[in-house]
Amino acid sequence: MTDELMTIRQMCDAFEVTARTLRFYEAKELLSPIREGQKRLFTKRDRARLKLILRGKRFGFALEEIRQLLDLYDMGDQQQTQLERTVEVARGHLDDLKRQRDELEEAIADLTDQLEWGERKIAEFKTNS
After folding, report:
1. Phi-psi region of 78 (alpha: psi -120 to 50; beta: other; left: phi over 0)
2. What are phi and psi of 42, to 5 degrees?
3. Residues 8-48: pLDDT tens digits?
4. CATH label, 6-127, candidates 3.30.450.20, 1.10.10.10, 1.10.1660.10, 3.40.50.300
5. CA-to-CA distance for 110 and 81, rounded, in angstroms?
6. For residues 66 and 53, is the Cβ–Cβ distance under 8 A?
7. Directed axis angle between helix 44-58 and helix 63-71, to 10°?
């Protein structure tokens, strides 16, 4: 991507999102494109923010968490506060993801056992018929 401004269509194509998504993020104050009438022009900063928003969503961050983390960028401390808070929030999400994985693995094991039991019962019915 260049340092040039991008239209909403170019952003949609580059990030594989819809125009509605971009307008939603703008309404939530996550993005702030330059407005020329109805036209939106996205800067390099908007592109960087969108990349972080999409990554945060993939990791399970709430939009409000993402907005708060992005807002820490301008603290004037070379992003130290932003990075520290991001690591803190990310650790919590990682713990949640690991817990969810463990629950899924347990459910998969239980369902596998139940299927094997059911298949054995079906086989018994067939041999006793």
Report:
1. left
2. -100, 135
3. 999 999 999 999 999 999 999 999 999 999 899 999 999 99
4. 1.10.1660.10
5. 44
6. yes
7. 140
Q: Which tokens go with 80?
A: 């130290």
Burial class (CB in 10 A: 0-12, 13-18, 19+), 46: buried
Within its chain, how far is the Cα of 96 from the centroid? 14
pLDDT at residue 129 in the model: 79
Rounded mean pLDDT of 46-66?
94
d(CA 72, CA 80): 9
Instruction: Choose among 69, 65, 66: nearest CA to 81.
Output: 69
Strand-pairing partners, residue 36, are: 39
Q: Which two tokens stand for residue 6?
A: 């991008």
